[in-house]
Amino acid sequence: MWFKFITKQYFTPLVGETVRDVVFLQDQSFFAAAQKKYTYIYGQEGIEAHCLKDQGAVLKLQFLKNHFLLASINKFGQLHYEDVSMGAMIGNIRTGLGRTDVMQVNPYNAVVGLGHSGGTVTMWKPTSSAPLVKMLCHHGPVSALAFHPNGHLMATAGKERKIKLWDLRKFEVLQTLPGHAKTLDFSQKGLLACGTGSFVQVLSDFSGTQNYSRYMNHSMVKGYKISNLLFRPYEDVLGIGHSMGWSSILIPGSGEPNFDSWVANPFETRKQRGEKEVHLLLDKLPPETIMLDPTKIGTVKTARKKEKSTTKEIEAEMEATIEAVKDGINMKKKTKGRSKPSKKLKKRQEIIAKAKRPFLEQQMQDGQLSIKKQKINEEVELPKSLQRFARKKAAT
């Protein structure tokens, strides 16, 4: 299989094998291609720069530009994070949910989202072996996934012919739309493109209340099978990848008309591009900063509530207090029978009993609470189907 990438120079590297996915790295100078056996990194002229053999047969690729991490999912369901600036493997995670080819990165917090055949969507970061979020989105396999540029809205499509919009701040469904989609993509202005078969549908939020409705439709030539949709940034163009090649259509209002030259400069020179890459490397974020809520970075950690002490800890603390009290007792010598040994012993016992009192009161309160909880649990009536398993009271 051959593929062609268009930059300032035209080139066509012939790899002679299947290419499953392609993604740009920090800029258009380098891109990664998931080929049949390994993942390869190519330069602007189409020259092979590196071969990543640790990732296996990769199905999908995503690049985290603020962290310089290349995320990939292979056919065995293993999620890998490769630091392309140092060539080091940052994370190797077994998802345990089987093969998947649905993968997207949330641009807001750099969390990787995966769609699985069981209808679940999981979200991952490189420093955790367990998913940050695991949510059941569909009753069938998830076929497509996309994140809104603001990071708070997610669109998913299932094989049961439903498209759902989710609020990631509350993990709730906002809207359910009928229809099937093999690929989804959000534009910079929030338009949602859905592609299936040879048909493209674009949805828009006209009211600004995250209530999407049909905006534009486009039909390809009969027999063309759409495999991928992607909005072009800062332009009103939607790119369509299909079985016969690549096409583009105009979608008015999809791109951001005002660009920030410090973020994306379409007129940058070679010198500016080199300086930009140096600045990106200096400002590279560590993998530990990837989290669901990035606003927590730099905040003060809240103090945890004091855990309840065990019986042994309370007894040990009481004994230590008693020993300290005994060492600190100094009995004054008094006249007229007040310094008798019996008087001194009684006074000593009173001081020790006073030191013991708080610990004994705490033990009594804990015992009363446990008895109260036990009575409440006994009074709870079990359902009829479980009553035969309840412990019967002894006959009087």
Task: Tell me what the structure shows.
With 396 residues, the protein is of the alpha+beta class. Helix content is 18%, strand content 34%. It has three helices and 25 strands. The strands form seven sheets. Strands 3-4-5-6 form a four-stranded antiparallel β-sheet, with no helix packed on it. The radius of gyration is 33 Å and the shape is elongated.
Please supply descriptive tags for the structure shown above.
396 residues, alpha+beta, 4-stranded antiparallel sheet, disordered N terminus, WD40_rpt
Distance between the termini: 85 Å
Q: What proportion of the residues is helical, as a percent range?
A: 10-25%
The tally of helices reads 3
> How would a textbook summarize the main sheet?
4 strands, antiparallel
- As residue ranges, the low-confidence spans are 1-10
Counting helices, strands and paired strands, the structural category is alpha+beta
Total beta strand runs: 25
Order of SSEs:
EEEEEEEEEEEEEEEEEEEEEEEEEHHH
Domain BING4 C-terminal: 214-294
Keywords: Nucleus, Repeat, WD repeat
Protein name: BING4 C-terminal domain-containing protein
Pfam family, one: WD40
Summarize this structure briefly.
With 396 residues, this protein is of the alpha+beta class.
